[in-house]
């Protein structure tokens, strides 16, 4: 597997499921990324406001307090340029439509493999 290096880049992983977050963090551990974590949609919004250096957001679609889709709508109001990739276990034409309408840039279906996660980095983070 190709080694990717994103030193100096910051991403946000908005994921309420701790094992899912740990899997993503471990997948990216040798990439040089700074990884921020939010456990609900409101935290994701706050984190984006507090960290303008965020270059990519991986957003769980279903989280407590506020869904990832609602958080994406809010983030788009002040960060229209940042790629937001929704992570969802609910892949259907309805959920894909919801992702597009909320402003998501891309989506990944859970369970997510290592190669898929690394491909998202290559696709959306310009080094």
Characterise this structure.
β3, α3 and β4 (84-88) form a beta-alpha-beta unit. The protein has helices spanning 18-27, 41-50, 68-78, 93-102, 114-124; strands spanning 10-14, 34-38, 54-60, 84-88, 106-109. A five-stranded parallel beta sheet has the order 2-1-3-4-5, with helices on both faces. α2 (41-50) runs parallel beside α3. It has five helices and five strands. With 127 residues, it is an alpha/beta fold. The two termini are 19 Å apart. It has a single domain, classed as Rossmann fold (3-Layer(aba) Sandwich), CATH 3.40.50. It is globular and about 35 Å long.
The count of domains is 1
Compressed to H and E, one letter per element, the order equals: EHEHEHEHEH
CATH level-3 fold name: Rossmann fold
End-to-end gap:
19 Å
* Strands side by side in the biggest sheet: 2-1-3-4-5
- Average per-residue pLDDT, rounded, comes to 92
Low-confidence regions: none
Instruction: Characterize the largest beta sheet: strand count, sense, and whether it forms a barrel.
Output: 5 strands, parallel
Taken as a percent bin, the fraction of beta residues is 15-25%
Number of strands: 5
The CATH superfamily turns out to be Response regulator
Rg, please? 13 Å
Descriptive keywords:
single chain, 127 residues, Rossmann fold, five-stranded parallel β-sheet, globular
Task: Give a brief rundown of this model.
The protein has five helices and five strands; from the N terminus they run βαβαβαβαβα.
How is the topology of this model organized?
Elements: E1 10-14, H1 18-27, E2 34-38, H2 41-50, E3 54-60, H3 68-78, E4 84-88, H4 93-102, E5 106-109, H5 114-124
Parallel strand pairs: 1-2, 1-3, 3-4, 4-5
């Amino acid at each position: 597997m190709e080694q990717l290096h994103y030193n100096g880049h910051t991403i946000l992983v908005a994921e309420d499921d701790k094992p899912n977050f740990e899997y993503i963090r471990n997948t990216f551990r040798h990439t040089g990324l700074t990884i921020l974590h939010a456990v609900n949609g409101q935290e994701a919004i706050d984190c984006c406001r507090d960290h303008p250096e965020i270059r990519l957001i991986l957003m769980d679609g279903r989280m407590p307090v506020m869904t990832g889709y609602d958080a994406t709508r809010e983030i788009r109001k002040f960060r229209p340029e940042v790629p937001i990739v929704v992570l969802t276990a609910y892949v259907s034409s309805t959920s894909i439509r919801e992702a597009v309408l909320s402003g998501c840039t891309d989506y990944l279906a859970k369970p997510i493999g290592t190669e898929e996660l690394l491909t998202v980095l290559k696709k959306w983070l310009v080094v």
